[in-house]
Amino acid sequence: MSAPQLAPHTPAVPPKAAAEEDPRLAREVMTAPVVTVGAHESLWSAWTMLHGYGLRHVVVVSGSRCVGVLDDRQIALQWPLGALKENPVTAGELVRARLRCVQGDTPVCVVAQIMLEECTDAVPVVDSRGEIHGLVTVTDLLTLLAQDEGHPK
Fold it and tell me: How far is CA 118 from the centre of its chain?
């Protein structure tokens, strides 16, 4: 017996139609301020920031410009022995080569679509210069959904 073939995910409502119905914007749901780490800094620095603040994501910056997002799983996979073994990889080397960011006036449904397309659980919110202003995570979107259903935060 063969496994059933699964169709690729397709949204029930096209993003443009959803955006017209739901005007909520990225800046309204994003987490801000965000914790950042320099692209040249060690994985230990990124790990320390994540766990020091009790977060899952840290934004990697070069100057004030966003170059990527690291999560605790990426660091753990790259560096399974943690502080027991030195790792020369920097935060900037571990981030994905291609990063999609949004601006604050991007509709939330477009942010969710980016998450689906990029298989990511966090999208940076930047200004026109690429400077970080916030981060929209899956948790932010779930919180929004729960509030919409009448459940308090």
Answer: 10
